[in-house]
Amino acid sequence: MRRLGVCALMMSLCLLAACGGGRGGEDADQLALDLRGRYLALSGCTARLELTADYGERVYEYGLDLSYQREGDTTLTVTAPEGAAGVTARISGDETFLEYDGASLETGPLDESGLSPMGAVMLMFRCAREGFIAESGMEEVGEGDALLRFTCRDPEAGAGEGTEVTLWASPETYALVRGEVSVDGARVVGCTFEDMAMEMEGTEQDTWTEHE
């Protein structure tokens, strides 16, 4: 999968734009910067995901176990549906393959860049670390509860243009709760994150759970 421009920009290029919400835009901007620092220090992660890939005429839903490594291979093992359980997507460099009983199968592209459903998870992590944050704000999810919500896209594109990644995270722990990838305004991948165990550079492993 080619590295998308939306996630190839360095932190120095990040300009944050306030975007409504229950708490002030300045609070959301600072939270987004704090989250970025946390993910820049992230060396590894495990989590359970529920992912939906929408190809228009075809929609696929998966349960996944994630083992993410910033340096080295990252694996996404299918836990549902039952018939596909055990299939593993192994991401190494720019390539993504499904592996089962010694066989490999490409996952198939979701956009012109060759984005795959499994590769979209890696795209979310890259955007958390270094994507151009075009919008940020707080989104209420229950009585007195709110999530940090921010959208990354190419700085020269407007809302709904090109590839966009929107992430929701706990403002207390910075754990990812939800993620979406959209292409020209249409959502192609959506996922939820649960039971994230994070390993930071120079620290012991922290366990983050989903936002209730």
Question: Your description of this structure?
Answer:
The protein is mostly beta strands and 212 residues long. The chain has a single domain (16-208), classed as Lipoprotein localisation LolA/LolB/LppX (outer membrane lipoprotein receptor (LolB), chain A, Clam), CATH 2.50.20.10. The chain contains 2 helices and 13 strands. Strands 1, 2, 3, 4, 5, 6, 7, 8, 9, 10, 11, 12 and 13 form a 13-stranded mixed beta sheet that branches. A hairpin with a 4-residue loop joins β3 and β4. The longest helix is centred in the first third of the chain and has 16 residues, at 25-40. The termini are far apart. Mean pLDDT is 79; it is low at 1-24 and 207-212.
Largest sheet: 13 strands, mixed
Shape: globular
How large is the count of helical segments?
2
CATH level-two architecture = Clam
What Rg is obtained from the alpha carbons, in whole angstroms?
Answer: 16 Å
Q: Roughly how much helix do the residues carry, as a percent range? A: 10-25%
CATH superfamily: Lipoprotein localisation LolA/LolB/LppX
Mean pLDDT reading: 79
Span of the ends, CA to CA: 34 Å
Which parts are unreliable, with pLDDT below 50 for 5 consecutive residues or more? 1-24, 207-212
Q: Please tally the β strands and state the result.
A: 13
